[in-house]
Design goal:
The complex is a heterodimer.
Chain A (H helix, E strand, L loop, with lengths): L14 H9 L8 H4 L6 H15 L1 H26 L3 H28 L5 H15 L1 H18 L2 E7 L2 E6 L6 H9 L22 H13 L1 H13 L6 H24 L5 E2 L2 E3 L6 E5 L2 H7 L9 E4 L6 E5 L6 H16 L4 E2 L2 E5 L4 E4 L12 H15 L5 E5 L7 H18 L2 E5 L12 E8 L7 E7 L4 H11 L4 H9 L1
Parallel strand pairs in A: 4-9, 7-12, 7-13, 10-11, 11-12
Antiparallel strand pairs in A: 1-2, 3-8, 5-6, 5-9, 13-14
Helix pairs in contact in A: 4-5, 4-11, 5-6, 5-7, 5-10, 7-10
Chain B lengths: L21 H7 L2 H9 L3 H12 L5 H16 L1 H20 L8 H29 L6 H13 L2 H13 L6 E7 L5 E7 L7 H5 L9 E3 L5 H55 L8 E3 L6 E6 L2 H6 L7 E4 L5 E6 L5 H16 L8 E5 L4 E5 L11 H15 L5 E5 L7 H17 L3 E5 L3 H10 L4 E8 L5 E7 L8 H8 L14
Parallel strand pairs in B: 4-8, 7-11, 7-12, 9-10, 10-11
Antiparallel strand pairs in B: 1-2, 5-6, 5-8, 12-13
Classes of the chains: A alpha/beta, B alpha/beta.
Chain lengths: ~500, ~500
């Protein structure tokens, strides 16, 4: 799964942006592949919904985020150990990593036990952890670590520095001379004093002198360091595979939920869609383009929500209306919703009924490529042909502004041809077009259009509603505004 | 170690923020002349004088505490000046010590040990002076100061300090304790009692210096030497801090001695100048706040005196039991001077100083404010009356009962009726709030208005003029008169003979 690339339509639907912002700050988990693998079984989707619902509960989500945080610092320690050269340094960081790991596992196990989990996924994990925590493998990992660490903490030594030589010895109860000096000079103390202590930067690695000292300390305490060596050797593969996998996989849920919460915090709604692999009656209420919302919310702009519904035998939305009116956004939303649903994620909207497609296709306008040596129109036709060749009645297709690079007559002709084939194929489709006639080709097509505010036609509502295509409505309104309607022009010219 | 020569149990706060009316007071009472006389060209003494005079004491005991210290200073001035010179020397010597490598504990320690050695020498000197002269001082302040020196700076103490200073040179190397921290790096470096004798560590390490436990860094290994010195630095960091802080503390002790004695030295300077002229000085008798009292004999303006060849004219006034003193009378008849002398005496009394008078008694006030007529506002942002009222409003926002306000020709920037109307309602309100008011005014309307309400509620003073129109600059009690003798002034300036028939005031 890790090799899975983003599907072709990711860019067209702006899903690449969605995934990027969902997985931002989580690069180390390499979560993208999860978002590139849609599911086709209803049961698998429900399984994920259950896990999502569990994670919506605060006790569990707190527990998981603490676990993730701790595992992250555990990995940091291992990375640090890897970077260091001195053996005893590596081993010390390794020892520390094991300690953090053990704590993370125990806390997770306790957290899962006390949280009210109901999903099959989390229940299974709880079971697994309970067994693991009591296993001899885990308990000895812990107990032996404590012994080694206590021994190291007990190491106390002295350095006698004179000129260019340092002699290391065991600590022999010499008094703290700084404290003595401090006490003698205490008498002069008045008010707050300037701090003359030099802040020494502490780096994880050691310089040659520190390394030399550590070697000699090891000579003074040979048993302690021998035990350390042995421990690290014995427990080289301490990390449990299942737990490590869980640590990564759960981030797929957590990351997406966090993203959802950012948007619900701004007043938007998400829901668990009812999904079907049979019924093509789809609908959604108060839905929106996730990528666009993500951009608008930080700017405090309003996110326009749309409703849509197809009832049998309706299959195809034909979207018309003024430019910049939210047509493409509507088309993208439709595509995003179906894709997100197939990942088992909650989707934008207060309610949704969605279809699980076998494949998703998009046909968006492309830049002309010099390499393919084809004209734009030809290129579009080639692509549409390819889609029609691959698509099945269970596919979903989003077509945006097809055949704009030709005459209206051509566009009408080609559009009608293509659409008729889609109608025949009986797949779910959104088709954005400037060709009004395509909106009423069949009883399976539904005409929807972007709308304007009647009083000020330059203000767009970005609402897409069911209505007959009428390309002239907007033109009339905008003309009125600038006093360029027929009547107004008559009056003005008469003067 | 505390000097406590300005307060019984508190440091003198040289850094203290001055009251907000500080600028008005300084300007209206011409305080800079007073500070300059105290400082005699020493910038530091000027600052001390400024801070001490403007930060008035309000507690009677605190004032008396300083008066007694002041008296010791007058009587034992040479010893006091000797101690002051010692403090100045300590501060100057410290400044001269090279501030070397302060990024390293070694550098800090080295400098601090040097500073401490110098301080110890001067502290010993101070002890000797104290031993010789302590019994000549009588004030609580000095008695406690000398006692503190005797107790804190015992010979044994000096011995142990000097012993440490010697040890801190680390002739036989540094011994540092440590533990293992994260990554098995050394941590919790602690300086251990240093080896005292050369052979000491030989006995203590069984293998001798060539053993596997000794690490020798080659002289040309620069990185190694740096690492070694950092390690050493970590060890002595805390000790260096302790010694450096001690040096700072002793420096701040000397700084405090200099600042606190600096005030008295300034007073001695001023006293010297005035005594030279034969001007009288006295310790005032402060009266508790709330008991309206003002009684003086021969009260004069010391700043004016210092700028005159002759002695200044003193005034005798008794305003006990009244909150309002209304001063009217001849132009250039000494009204403003008198107002200033009251203000100065009040400030000098409340900082524990002597006062420029033969005798002075007054109740302590919470704060002194002045509202003097000013030149036209140079910024042209507001009219003159606006400016005056604005200033008054600021004062009103801060003033509290038991404060004192000196007004000099206030609210005269408009016609007399309006001005007196404004002024009288302000004054009435101030009096009701138990605020002592001294008001110099040309406004007959204003002064007469109060006079008619009952002369016993206020003291009315008038600048005197003699029959020939000449001025004595003396004030005498007297009802307000409807002219301020501007004519006299005119006559003098235009060198015209006074019209005898006009000399009597018009009713």
């Amino acid at each position: 799964m890790d090799q899975r690339e983003a599907p072709d339509f990711f860019g067209d639907l702006n899903l690449d942006q969605v995934v990027a912002s969902v997985t931002a700050t989580r690069d180390d988990y390499h979560l993208q592949p999860f978002f590139h693998a849609p599911l086709r079984e209803v049961e698998a989707i429900i399984h994920r919904h259950e896990a999502y619902r569990d994670l919506e509960g605060k006790p569990l989500s707190d527990c998981i985020s603490a676990f993730a945080q701790t595992m992250r610092s555990m990995r940091d320690c291992l990375v640090q150990a890897g970077k260091l050269r001195h053996r005893y340094q590596k081993e010390s960081w390794f020892l520390h990593a094991v300690g953090i790991y053990a704590g993370a596992v125990i806390d997770l196990q306790r957290g899962l036990t006390s949280a009210d989990v109901r999903s099959r996924g989390f229940l299974a994990l709880r079971e697994y952890l309970s067994t693991y925590v009591d296993s001899p493998e885990f308990t000895s990992l812990l107990a032996e670590r404590k012994g080694v660490e206590d021994d190291l903490a007990g190491v106390s030594y002295c350095l006698h520095i004179q000129e260019n030589r340092i002699t290391v010895s065991r600590y022999d109860s010499q008094v703290d001379y700084a404290a003595e000096v401090n006490e003698t000079f205490q008498k002069f103390k008045q008010g707050v004093a300037k701090d003359y202590r030099i802040e020494f930067r502490t780096y994880p690695d050691m310089n040659s002198v520190e390394a030399g000292v550590l070697d000699r300390v090891a000579l003074l305490y040979p048993d302690v360091f021998l035990e350390l060596d042995r421990y690290c050797e014995r427990h080289r593969d301490f990390l449990d595979r299942t737990i490590a996998d869980f640590d990564r996989e759960v981030q797929f849920y957590v990351a997406y939920l966090e993203h959802v919460q950012r948007l619900t915090g701004a007043g938007l709604q998400f829901c668990y869609p009812r999904v079907s692999d049979k019924s093509k009656e789809v609908s959604a209420r108060d839905t929106f383009d996730l990528a666009l919302a993500n951009k608008l919310i930080p700017e405090h702009s309003t996110v326009v929500r749309n409703d849509f519904a197809l009832t049998d035998p309706e299959r195809i939305f034909v979207v018309t209306g003024p430019n910049q009116g939210g047509k493409t956004t509507f088309a993208r939303t439709f595509g995003q919703l179906h894709y997100l649903a197939s990942l088992g994620c909650p989707v934008p909207g207060s309610d949704a009924q969605l279809f699980l497609p076998d494949m998703l296709f998009t046909h968006f306008e492309r830049e002309e490529h010099l390499t393919n040596l084809r004209g734009k129109l030809e290129d579009e036709l080639v692509r549409i042909h390819e889609i029609l060749r691959l698509a099945t009645p269970d596919s979903v297709l989003i077509m945006n502004e097809i055949f704009t690079s030709t005459t209206l007559r051509d566009a009408l002709f080609l559009g009608t041809k293509a659409l008729k084939r889609l109608i025949k194929l009986d797949l779910l489709c959104v088709c954005v077009t400037f060709v009004d006639e395509l909106a009423s080709l069949s009883e399976t097509t539904v005409s929807v259009a972007s709308t304007i505010t009647p009083e000020d036609p330059t203000v767009r509502t970005y609402k897409i509603v069911r209505k007959p295509a009428d390309g002239r409505a907007y033109a009339a309104a905008i003309a009125e505004k600038y006093a360029l309607t027929y009547e107004r022009l008559q009056q003005r010219i008469a003067r | 170690m505390k000097a406590f020569l300005m307060h019984r149990a508190k440091d003198f706060e040289l850094e203290r923020v001055l009251p907000p009316q500080e600028r008005d007071l300084t300007q209206d009472l011409e305080l800079e002349r007073l500070f300059a006389a105290m400082a005699r060209g020493d910038k530091f003494l000027f600052e001390v004088a400024q801070k001490a005079v403007l930060a008035s004491l309000t507690d009677l005991e605190d004032i008396v505490y300083r008066q007694r210290v002041m008296n010791d200073c007058i009587e034992q001035s040479s010893t006091v000046r000797e101690i002051y010179a010692l403090a100045v020397e300590a501060i100057e010597q410290e400044r001269k010590i090279f501030w070397g490598f302060l990024k390293y504990p070694d550098g800090i320690l080295h400098r601090s040990v040097q500073a401490m050695e110098m301080f110890v020498m001067l502290l010993k000197k101070l002890r000797r002076i104290a031993g010789l002269h302590a019994d000549e001082f009588k004030s609580d302040g000095f008695v406690a100061f000398f006692e503190m020196l005797r107790v804190e700076l015992a010979d044994e103490y000096f011995q142990s300090v000097e012993e440490h200073l010697k040890q801190l040179r680390f002739r036989h190397g540094v011994l540092i304790g440590a533990h293992l921290g994260r990554g098995n790096k050394g941590t919790e470096y602690v300086l251990r009692e240093p080896p005292k004798r050369k052979q000491w560590w030989r006995q203590w390490i069984p293998f001798g210096e060539d053993s596997a436990l000794t690490l020798i860094i080659a002289e040309r290994d620069e990185a190694g030497m740096r690492a070694l010195s950092e390690l050493r630095g970590r060890g002595i960091n805390l000790a260096a801090n302790a010694v450096a802080q001690s040096a700072d503390h002793i420096l701040s002790f000397f700084t405090m001695v200099r600042a606190e004695l600096g005030f008295y030295i300034g007073c001695l300077n001023l006293r010297g100048l005035l005594a030279e002229k034969g001007e009288p000085l006295c310790f005032p008798a402060p009266v508790a706040a709330g008991k309206s009292s003002l009684d003086c004999r021969g009260l004069y303006d010391p700043c004016l005196s210092l700028s005159l060849r002759d002695r200044a004219v003193g005034n005798d006034v008794n305003a006990d039991g009244t909150l309002l003193v209304m001063i009217t009378g001849a132009n250039q008849g000494g009204k403003s001077t008198f107002l200033r002398s009251i203000g100065l005496a009040q400030l000098m009394m409340q900082c524990g100083m002597f006062v420029a008078a033969e005798a002075f008694r007054s109740n302590v006030c919470e704060a002194l404010y002045t509202h003097f007529r000013r030149e036209e506002d140079p910024t042209m942002t507001s009219g003159k009356l606006d400016e005056e009222l604005n200033r008054m409003s600021e004062i009103a926002g801060r003033v509290t009962p038991n404060c004192m306000l000196l007004l000099n020709e206030s609210f005269s920037a408009t016609n007399e009726r309006e001005g007196s109307e404004i002024a009288s309602s302000i004054v009435l309100a101030l009096l009701e709030a138990e605020i002592k008011v001294c008001f110099v005014t040309h406004s007959f309307e204003l002064a007469n208005g109060f006079y008619r309400q009952g002369a016993d509620t206020a003291l009315f003073l008038r600048a005197e003029r003699q029959a020939d129109g000449g001025r004595t600059f003396k004030l005498a009690e007297g009802e307000p008169l409807p002219t301020s003798y501007g004519e006299d002034l005119y006559n003098r300036i235009f060198d015209e003979a006074p019209d005898v028939g006009d000399a009597t005031p018009r009713a």
